[in-house]
């Protein structure tokens, strides 16, 4: 499993360097990353979310899916609460907070699990991604909007569903939330999964193929931002190492302790393998969605990209290590 993880992460890194090269050779501009970010957030990501629900339904799988969702909610709740408390002692920027709380549980973990465990395990990632996206598109995006408002910037986000306003009614906020394509994908995917609804084959294939672009597009966006970033940026901000420690070492260790203490794997047949998917989702590098939100809301996209790239680089070592510890301890 460790070797498969390393191979997949290296493959994703090669995709990152493709975006880097396109900008360095002036084929694309750094600013083009904003268009690709919107393409990823509003089209490719919803397709990934929906397609992951298209598996054979069994009572055992439904129970495992539900437990994975509950566990994901608890994990994300712990991350959010910890950072909220830490921010009172050691103030953090919006990019740092979201980078620590929200992992790259889709872009990296989906291809890793499909490659190493098989597509049948993707449904359990979806449980995590569902919880993750609901929180990201409510709590996460609200952090960026709040910071943008404080700084007095108009920004360049054109998505009307998430326009923030002091006077906005609860109905309008709820309506905007439900119109977001990522949330709709989760809702309709879950309904199809629950009621065993099959899509016409051409439509299902189109959704699958579009979703398959998430790894390349997300990593190329990161590479495009990196292309115009001085390499010394990785070392001039010492907080980068602190953020990386929280995301890639501290949280994975905390979760190992929790999984062991709560005997999580013993709650289901094949629970060790099923909850490994949840664990991988939680210990992944900083999410590329943070980069994309930082670009759209003009909140230090270069620093966000630094965190994403550095945590992904560190993940080449930490993820196989923690998978080994999980296999040994759980």
UniProtKB/TrEMBL annotation:
It comes from the Bacteria. One of its GO terms (cellular component) is plasma membrane. The keyword Transmembrane helix applies. The chain crosses the membrane at residues 6-23, 35-52, 64-86, 98-117, 123-144, 181-198, 210-227, 239-259, 274-297, 309-329. It is found in: Cell membrane. It is a multi-pass membrane protein. It holds the Pfam family Mem_trans. Keywords: Cell membrane, Membrane, Transmembrane, Transmembrane helix, Transport. InterPro entries: Mem_transp_PIN-like, Na+/solute_symporter_sf. One of its GO terms (biological process) is transmembrane transport. Belongs to the auxin efflux carrier (TC 2.A.69) family. This is AEC family transporter. It comes from Oribacterium sinus. The lineage of its organism: Bacteria, Bacillati, Bacillota, Clostridia, Lachnospirales.
């Amino acid at each position: 499993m460790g070797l498969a993880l390393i191979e997949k992460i290296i493959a994703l890194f090669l995709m990152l360097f493709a975006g880097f090269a396109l900008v360095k050779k002036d084929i694309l501009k750094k600013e083009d990353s904003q268009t690709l970010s919107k393409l990823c957030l509003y089209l490719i990501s919803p397709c990934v979310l929906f397609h992951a629900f298209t598996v054979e339904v069994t009572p055992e799988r439904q129970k495992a899916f539900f437990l994975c969702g509950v566990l994901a909610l608890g994990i994300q709740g712990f991350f959010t609460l910890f950072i909220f408390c830490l921010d009172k002692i050691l103030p953090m920027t919006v990019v740092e907070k979201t980078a620590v709380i929200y992992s790259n549980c889709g872009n990296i973990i989906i291809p890793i699990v499909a490659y190493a465990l098989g597509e049948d395990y993707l449904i359990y990632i979806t449980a995590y991604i569902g919880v993750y996206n609901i929180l990201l598109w409510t709590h996460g995006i609200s952090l960026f909007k709040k910071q943008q408002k404080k700084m007095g910037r108009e920004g360049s986000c054109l998505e009307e569903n998430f326009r923030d306003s002091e006077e906005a009614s609860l109905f309008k906020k709820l309506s905007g939330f439900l119109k977001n394509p990522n949330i709709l994908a989760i809702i309709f995917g879950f309904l199809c999964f629950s009621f065993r609804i099959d899509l016409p084959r051409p439509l299902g294939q189109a959704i699958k193929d579009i979703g398959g672009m998430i790894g390349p597009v997300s990593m190329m966006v990161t590479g495009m931002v990196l292309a115009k970033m001085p390499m010394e940026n990785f070392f001039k901000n010492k907080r980068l190492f602190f953020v990386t420690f929280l995301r890639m070492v501290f949280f994975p260790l905390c979760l190992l302790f929790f999984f062991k203490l709560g005997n999580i794997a013993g709650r289901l047949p094949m629970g060790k393998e099923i909850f490994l998917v949840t664990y991988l989702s939680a210990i992944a590098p900083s999410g590329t969605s943070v980069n994309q939100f930082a670009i759209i809301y003009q909140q230090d996209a270069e620093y966000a990209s630094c965190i994403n790239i550095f945590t992904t680089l560190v993940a080449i070592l930490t993820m196989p290590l923690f998978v080994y510890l999980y296999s040994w301890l759980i």
